[in-house]
Amino acid sequence: MALRFPAEWEPQSAILLAWPHEGTDWADRLDSVEKTYVALTAAIAAHQTAVVCVADEPLQRRARIALERGGVRLDRVRFVQASYDDTWLRDSGPITLVGPDGFRLLDFRFTGWGGKFEAARDDRLVEQLEAAGLFRNATRQRIDFALEGGGIETDGAGTLLTTWRCMHERHPHASRDGLSHTLAHHLHQNRVLWLDHGHLEGDDTDAHIDTLARFAAPDAIVYQGCDDPDDSHYPELQAMAAELAALRTRHGHPYRLFALPWARPIIDEGRRLAASYANFLIINGAVLMPAYGDPADAGAAAVMARAFPDRKIVQVPCRPLIWQNGSLHCVTMQLPIGLLA
């Protein structure tokens, strides 16, 4: 069966997310982060189904009440019970390949971003969702290789974009050629593009690509810029911009590049938080964009509108999410059209 890794902008069945609860790292700020989850779920449900993981029946009741109060279309919300350590489903959820005869759910080993956090339940999440009957016409493939969905970007046509910093941290003894081969083999890609620069303070993923640079089309990349020479990020993000300018499409042309504006520093409890506009989510007919209550939010939305002229740009308030070092894309995973049972 010829398998393919679809781009995020291709038609979707649903968006998968997990509701925060007191047993996750959100416990200290549960009320504020729940408001973000209500806004996020509402934005998804305006266009397609949202599949919400819940730890148990009481949490499902709590989530349903919050969504009802938020005016969310509950006919487009589906709950599924599973146990999870935290809610970063971009990294613990299934990476789905599509083929002429069905789907393959790639279940890579999830290590809590290189052993930084407990991840045993998250590492079993795809298996749990399969056992719950969430998917149709799909085969799960367990792969003994540490990889997170936030660490890779595909154009849907065989090109993968990733960062050396992240992959080298997960696999310190592997060469770049070796990692390129492994990624291309498992993800059915025919070329891998690497970025050596780009990192955000407050990011504990070791420079996931989805905080830095994202495909908007096979010939277009949206990336997090920094135009403040006095900011500590300026050298790295300028170097990353130069790397992106040097990349070529499979046809040998430069990519069309869209630089996102830079938000002012957000400091919480003495540490800087990773407020990246590149952590957006593409859904059916829209792009959900993280907003941080910053003047740059409007500029970021304008850039997104140019990069995605055929989609509605929807701002979702994500300031509570970055307290835990991630944003909108990090807490979601798209399910390709036809995958949902």
Automatic annotation (TrEMBL):
Q: Name one GO biological process term.
A: putrescine biosynthetic process
Any one Gene Ontology molecular-function term assigned to this protein's record: protein-arginine deiminase activity
State the superkingdom. Answer: Bacteria
Q: Does the keyword Transferase apply?
A: no
One of this protein's Pfam families, by short name? PAD_porph
Q: Does the keyword Secreted apply?
A: no
Name of the protein in question: Agmatine/peptidylarginine deiminase
Biological source species:
Rehaibacterium terrae
